[in-house]
Amino acid sequence: MNDPSPLLQLERVSRRLGGRTVVRELDLRLARGQVLGLLGVNGAGKSTTLAMMAGAQQPDRGCVRLQGVDLAEQPQRARTDIGWLPERAPLWPELNVIEHLDASARLRGLRGAAVRKRRDALLERLQLQREARRLVAVLSQGQRQRVGLACALLHEPPLLVLDEPGNGLDPLQAAQLRELIRERAAAGCGVVLSTHLLPEVTAVCDRVAILHEGALRHDAPLHAGRDRLLLTLAQSVDAAHIAALTPVAQVQAQDACRYAITLRDDADAPALVQAAVAAGLAVAGVQPVAGELEQAFMRIATQHAASASEQAQAA
Ligand SMILES: Nc1ncnc2c1ncn2[C@@H]1O[C@H](COP(=O)(O)OP(=O)(O)OP(=O)(O)O)[C@@H](O)[C@H]1O
User: Fold this and answer.
1) How far does the centroid of ligand 1 lie from the alpha carbon of residue 212, in Å?
2) Which ligand 1 atom sits closest to the C-alpha of 48?
3) Which atom of ligand 1 is found nearest the CA of 20?
4) Residue 56 and residue 36: Cα distance in Å, rounded?
5) Helical ranges in 133-222 per DSSP H
6) For residue 28, which of 222, 295, 217, 224 has the smallest C-alpha distance?
7) Per-residue pLDDT for 1 more than 50?
8) pLDDT value at position 208?
9) Cβ(133)–Cβ(96) under 8 Å?
10) Distance from the CA of 219 to the center of ligand 1, in angstroms?
11) ipTM score of complex
12) How far is the CA of 65 from the centre of ligand 1 (A)?
């Protein structure tokens, strides 16, 4: 179901770079409180799309609306209402971390005591206190990434746009980042992130969009994949028998004896087994439908490899 007034909306957005269309006719919506994962093979157009969402690049065609307002008409909204972490956070190497965060906070409209309050809270939250007085120039990649994240979060914007935010973070920091993203989403913030790590997507995102050669090839809620179960029977029955079971919301026959099932919100796997047995069905097993996201990604990536090799042969 579409949110009637999305936080962020891309309307037929296209972008040309180096004489090629690298993002084409993209339609995407993001609701408040939603975390959208943007996936795609290298060069699919993720960073370009995120830069347009963040107001850092302008579409050649189409428009990006934040809370209904075209960003091209009010470009200053990008600085105050969006937290943007590009793939390589552009930091000032000659400032120390505190100076950097204070300057960033003022650029984003914070003044007075709020600057120090937000800066100190983020130094603690992102475990940067020990680096607070060190020059940005001498920080490690993971420390720089956390300074970039702090800059994106300082002004508590309603939209966060994060390009591979886990880059350079150790597993503990990566887990803390996921927690932070979920917290911001719970507070009503919309988040878009790109990553190549599918487990990161399943851990933190509500929805996944996959780009292929700049076009949107997949846009679906993640819970639909996560909640599906594979029911295996020792007999073949018409899918309508399964659909009639109370815990079942949707059923799709996979082959003669296996059925992919979406449960109703209040149901779980034991309830499904109980209902099936009570209906006289010979249940051989129930398990989660594995790796639907991986399957979607691999299908699209394989097409990419095939079309690239056809182009190379034609050249
Ligand atoms: N400044 C530029 N000039 C010309 N072409 C560009 C420029 N920036 C990006 N491109 C091209 O646009 C396409 C999309 O690039 P983009 O960085 O958006 O992809 P991506 O999906 O983020 O890739 P990756 O996963 O490798 O980060 C690529 O083919 C890239 O070579």
Assistant:
1) 12
2) 18
3) 5
4) 19
5) 141-153, 171-186, 198-204
6) 217
7) no
8) 92
9) yes
10) 21
11) 0.97
12) 23
Task: Give the residue whose CA is nearest to atom 27 of ligand 1.
Answer: 42
DSSP code for 135:
B
Q: Are 31 and 190 in contact (CB under 8 A)?
A: yes
**Beta bridge partners of residue 159, listed in sequence order:** 82, 190
What SS3 state is found at 95? coil
Instruction: Report the DSSP pairing between strands 69-70 and 82-85.
Output: unpaired
Indicate the top mutation candidate among 22, 88, 216 to test ligand 1's pocket, ranked by most ligand atoms within 8 A of CB.
Answer: 22
CA 49 to centroid of ligand 1, rounded, Å: 10
The minimum-distance atom of ligand 1 relative to the CA of 87 is 27
What average pLDDT does this structure show over 263-287? 89
Residues framing ligand 1 (Cβ under 6 A): 17-18, 22, 40, 42-48
- For ligand 1, atom 8, the nearest C-alpha belongs to 17
Tokens of 123: 């130094």
CATH of segment(s) 8-221: 3.40.50.300
Give the count of beta carbons closer than 10 Å to the beta carbon of residue 296: 17
- Give 171-178's long-range contacts (Cβ < 8 A, gap of 24+): 173/127, 173/142, 173/146, 174/200, 176/126, 176/127, 177/149, 178/203, 178/204
Give the pLDDT confidence score for residue 312 in this predicted structure: 64
Q: Using CA positions, which residue lies closest to atom 31 of ligand 1?
A: 43
Q: Which fold has domain 223-315?
A: Alpha-Beta Plaits (3.30.70)
pLDDT for 165-208, tens place per residue? 998 898 889 888 999 999 999 999 999 999 988 878 888 898 99
Protein residue with its CA nearest to atom 1 in ligand 1 = 17
State the distance from the centre of ligand 1 to the C-alpha of 213, rounded, in angstroms: 10
| Rounded mean pLDDT, 212-222 | 90
